[in-house]
Amino acid sequence: MLSTVATIVLILMSLSVLVCTIRAIIGPSMSDRLVALDTIGINLIGFTAILLLIQDTLAYAEVVLVLAILAFIGSVAIAKFIEGGVVLDRDRH
Q1: CA-to-CA distance for 78 and 22, rounded, in angstroms?
Q2: Residues 6+ apart with CB under 8 A from 90
Q3: Alpha-carbon dihedral sign for residues 40, 38, 73, 82
Q4: Closest C-alpha among 88, 84, 71, 81 to residue 36
Q5: Which helix (H) or strand (E) holds 79?
Q6: Where are the domains of the chain?
Q7: What is 2-84's CATH number?
């Protein structure tokens, strides 16, 4: 029963990633693209966590943490770029 539900969830999450990819490509604004990329990151974290449950292992626990950190840092960097145009502020005297 769990494997059937997990398979259905993986299929739905794959469709969600596909829709978010389309939105990231043709999004009307940069903010829409940022939200789509952030949603793709969240879906990848969930996808990996579901695989972790299906395979009944902890081998992917570190992968989930790394994906979460990279998704957060990427979202912050892109949001800062959209807001000010510069990701890293360096004082050049």
Answers
A1: 18
A2: none
A3: positive
A4: 71
A5: helix 61-84
A6: 2-84
A7: 1.10.287
pLDDT in tens, 29-54: 888 888 898 999 999 999 999 999 88
Q: Does the pLDDT of residue 16 top 80, yes or no?
A: yes
- Token pair for residue 64? 């989930």
Q: Tens of pLDDT along 55-89?
A: 888 888 898 999 899 989 888 888 888 877 666 66
Concatenating the DSSP letter of every residue in 9-76 gives HHHHHHHHHHHHHHHHHH-SSHHHHHHHHHHHHHHHHHHHHHHHHHHT-STTHHHHHHHHHHHHHHHH
- Degrees to nearest 5, angle at CA 68 with 85 and 88: 25
Can you give the pTM of this predicted structure?
Answer: 0.79
